[in-house]
Specification:
30% strand; 247 residues; 7 helices; single chain; two-stranded antiparallel ribbon
Length: 247
C-alpha cells in the first residue's frame, strides 16, 4: 500500500471524526437549551475556521442536523435552530446520572438485562409502529449512595436508532447514551402510581405491595418512535415538583 493511499485513509477518517464532532457540539447547544428555537447557527465559514476543516465536512454535519429536524437551512440566510411545529409544554429529559449527582449523592449503575432481538407484536405496540426489524431490550438499575434509586425498562427501535446495536450499555446507561448521541424532536411523559410486584420489590429493595411512582416516557424524531422507557421509583422517597409562571 502506498504512502498516498495511507494518507488518504487518514484524511478520510479525520473528516468523519470532525463532522461527528461538529454535529455533536451543535446538538448539545440545542438540546441543552443554550441555543433556543430561532437561534442562528454559526455560518459555514465560521465553523470551517473553528474546526479547521473543509466546507464539505461542515455541510455534512449541518445536513444531518436538518434531516433530524433540529435545524432549518435557509438559502442565503444561514441555518437556524428549528422552532417546534406544535405548541406543547416545555419538557426536559434529565440524565439520571446528572439528576442523582445534583442531589449531592454518588451515582451507581447496574445493567441487569440487555438483548438485541427481532421485534415482537408487543414491542411494535409499545413503540407505536406497524412494523420494525430489531429492537434492544434493556433492564437496568440506578442507585444513589449504593441505595436503589430507580429501575428502568427500556425498548429501543434499531431501525430508528441503528447506532444502539453497537453501544455498550454495560458501561454507559442507555438514557445517558441516547441523550448524548441521538437527537429527538418530541417527547411524552405519563405519570402514574403502582404497587411493587415481586420483581420490582426485589430490584428496589422495598416490600411487595409498597407504593411506587412510575414515569412512562416516549421520544420521537420526525414522527418515528426512538425509544419507550418505564422508570419506577420507590414512592415514599420520590415526588414530582413543577413550578409555573402566570401568563
Amino acid at each position: 500500500m502506498s504512502l498516498a493511499t495511507d494518507r488518504g485513509k487518514v484524511e478520510a477518517a479525520d473528516r468523519l471524526t470532525l463532522y461527528k464532532q461538529i454535529r455533536h457540539d451543535i446538538e448539545t447547544h440545542i438540546l441543552t437549551g443554550e441555543w433556543p428555537p430561532g437561534h442562528r447557527i454559526p455560518f459555514e465559514h465560521q465553523l470551517m475556521a473553528r474546526y479547521g476543516c473543509s466546507r464539505m465536512t461542515v455541510n455534512k454535519a449541518l445536513s444531518e442536523l436538518a434531516q433530524a429536524d433540529l435545524i432549518e437551512r435557509r438559502r442565503r440566510a444561514g441555518s437556524f435552530v428549528r422552532r417546534p411545529q406544535h405548541l406543547s409544554a416545555v419538557l426536559k429529559i434529565a440524565d439520571m446520572r446528572a439528576e442523582i449527582t445534583a442531589l449531592g449523592r454518588s451515582y451507581g449503575y447496574q445493567l441487569v438485562h440487555c438483548v438485541r432481538r427481532a421485534a415482537t407484536a408487543a414491542d411494535r405496540a409499545r413503540l407505536g409502529v406497524r412494523k420494525t426489524g430489531k429492537v434492544v431490550v434493556i433492564t437496568c438499575r440506578h442507585s444513589a449512595d449504593d441505595v436503589p434509586f430507580a429501575v428502568e425498562d427500556r425498548l429501543i427501535d434499531l431501525e430508528a436508532v441503528p447506532e444502539a446495536a453497537t453501544a455498550d450499555f454495560a458501561v454507559e446507561p442507555p438514557g445517558s447514551w441516547l441523550l448524548h448521541h441521538v437527537p429527538w424532536t418530541e417527547a411524552e411523559h405519563t405519570i402514574s402510581a403502582v404497587v411493587a410486584d415481586d420483581r420490582t420489590a426485589a430490584a428496589l429493595g422495598i416490600a411487595i405491595g409498597a407504593p411506587c411512582l412510575v414515569i412512562d416516557r416516549y421520544t420521537w424524531r420526525s414522527a418515528r418512535t426512538l425509544t419507550a422507557v418505564r422508570l419506577i421509583y420507590p414512592g415514599d422517597t420520590h415526588r414530582l415538583v413543577a413550578r409555573f409562571n402566570g401568563g
